[in-house]
């Protein structure tokens, strides 16, 4: 189906409604439940796709069988992954249960997308060092936090000055995946570069204040509770964007955190310059962090806590990619006499 210009509006417009009231209710429900911006974006996308598939009929007129048809279409026609299909289902269930207050009954007969069993890409210590050698400045520092602290990319970019404890060498991750806080280590090797970086950022912040700016977005309702906190140094982002950004809600200028695409491009370029054939992304550093800790003898529960995984089974995937060859088994080819080499 081709989406018309009219349907590019949030969720499209229903025939019997002048304004997208469903979209308004959806956003209000997200905010009440403190869903992350990424989750909101994904859920709106899949609800729009669901309504588009059914010719923008109001979801109250659709039933469980209609949900079945849509999910089966995703698996069969669009060959989406199992995780993508499950995300679409979660969005639709959210719509019916929390927005429309009309929970669905059991959804049976769905053709499930095939769940692939893939191991994460993991770098060796030498490969990590080679990539780091091609990164500079704040990009190097962010990559070091991804690898040295096991942070996700957005977790590192959303760090505020108050989240760093330079004395205890700790990082507090606020509102991580699943809206969970956790504490992880601050790599000692980043301490001095990080201190120099913060000195530069603080000088920029002072200049912004002198020019009448220097405000930053605060989480939840803290801006109303502490009206002047958004100007304080401790609330500023550790990795602010280069140019000031105007908040469309308050019309104030401040500095948001650095855009993630800048780091993603820098890491991809650094990986190419090293000549690596592995597909390296920012998340590869987090995979390598976990695998290298396990290889160094740290117990899996400690690694689970540092990564912020709810289930240890998620962490156990890294036990399958430890650098031990074929599960630690020595190949019989290695027992051949050296005299056979080159024959």
Describe, in short, the structure shown.
The protein is mainly alpha-helical and 343 residues long. It is built from 13 helices and five strands. 44% of the residues lie in helices and 4% in strands.
Radius of gyration: 24 Å
CATH topology group of the largest domain: hpI Integrase, Chain A
Q: H/E element string?
A: HHHHHHHEEEHHEEHHHH
End-to-end distance: 61 Å
- What is the oligomer described by this structure? single chain
Low-confidence stretches: 1-9
Helix content range of the residues, please? 40-55%
* Percent strand: under 5%
CATH class of the largest domain: Mainly Alpha
The CATH architecture name of the largest domain reads: Orthogonal Bundle
**Average of pLDDT:** 84
CATH superfamily of the largest domain: Intergrase catalytic core
Please work out how many helical segments DSSP would assign. 13
How many runs of DSSP E, i.e. beta strands?
5
Question: Largest sheet at a glance?
Answer: 3 strands, antiparallel
Work out the count of structural domains: 2
* Sequence of strands across the biggest β-sheet: 1-2-3
* Silhouette: globular
Features:
343 residues; mainly alpha; DNA polymerase, domain 1; hpI Integrase, Chain A; three-stranded antiparallel sheet; two-stranded antiparallel sheet; 13 helices; disordered N terminus
Any overview of this molecule?
The chain has 343 residues and is mainly alpha-helical. The chain has 2 domains: 94 residues, DNA polymerase, domain 1, CATH 1.10.150.130; 208 residues, hpI Integrase, Chain A (Orthogonal Bundle). The protein contains 13 helices and 5 strands. Strands 1-2-3 form a 3-stranded antiparallel beta sheet. Strands 4-5 form a two-stranded antiparallel sheet. The longest helix is centred in the middle third of the chain and has 20 residues. It starts with 20 loop residues before the first helix and ends in a 28-residue tail after the last helix. The N terminus is likely disordered.
């Amino acid at each position: 189906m081709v989406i018309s210009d009219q349907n590019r509006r949030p969720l499209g417009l229903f025939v019997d409604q002048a304004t997208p009231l469903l979209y308004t209710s959806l956003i209000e429900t997200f905010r009440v439940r403190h869903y992350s911006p990424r989750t909101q974006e994904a859920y709106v996308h899949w609800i729009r796709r669901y309504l588009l598939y059914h010719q923008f009929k109001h979801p109250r007129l659709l039933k469980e069988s209609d949900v079945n048809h849509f999910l089966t279409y995703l698996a069969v026609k669009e060959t989406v992954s199992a995780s993508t299909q499950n995300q679409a289902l979660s969005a639709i269930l959210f719509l019916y249960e929390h927005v429309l207050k009309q929970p669905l009954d059991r959804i049976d007969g769905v053709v499930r997308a095939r769940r692939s069993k893939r191991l994460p890409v993991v770098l060796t210590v030498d490969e990590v060092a080679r990539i780091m050698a091609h990164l500079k400045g704040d990009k190097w520092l962010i990559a070091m936090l991804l690898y040295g602290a096991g942070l996700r990319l957005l977790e590192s970019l959303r760090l505020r000055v108050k989240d760093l404890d330079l004395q205890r060498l700790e990082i507090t991750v606020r509102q991580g995946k699943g809206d969970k806080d956790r504490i992880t280590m601050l790599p000692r090797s980043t301490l001095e570069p990080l201190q120099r970086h913060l000195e530069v950022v603080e000088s920029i912040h002072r200049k912004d204040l002198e020019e009448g700016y220097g405000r930053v977005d605060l989480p939840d309702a803290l801006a109303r509770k502490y009206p002047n906190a958004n100007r304080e140094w401790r609330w500023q982002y550790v990795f602010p964007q280069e140019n000031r950004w105007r908040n469309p809600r308050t019309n104030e200028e401040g500095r948001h955190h650095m855009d993630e695409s800048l780091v993603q491009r820098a890491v991809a370029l650094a990986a190419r310059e090293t000549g690596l054939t592995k597909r390296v992304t920012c998340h590869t550093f987090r995979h390598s962090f976990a695998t290298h800790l396990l290889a160094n003898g740290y117990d899996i529960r400690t690694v689970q806590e540092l990564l912020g995984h709810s289930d240890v089974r998620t962490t156990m995937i890294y036990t399958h990619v430890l650098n031990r060859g074929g599960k630690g088994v020595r190949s019989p080819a290695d027992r051949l006499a050296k005299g056979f080499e080159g024959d």
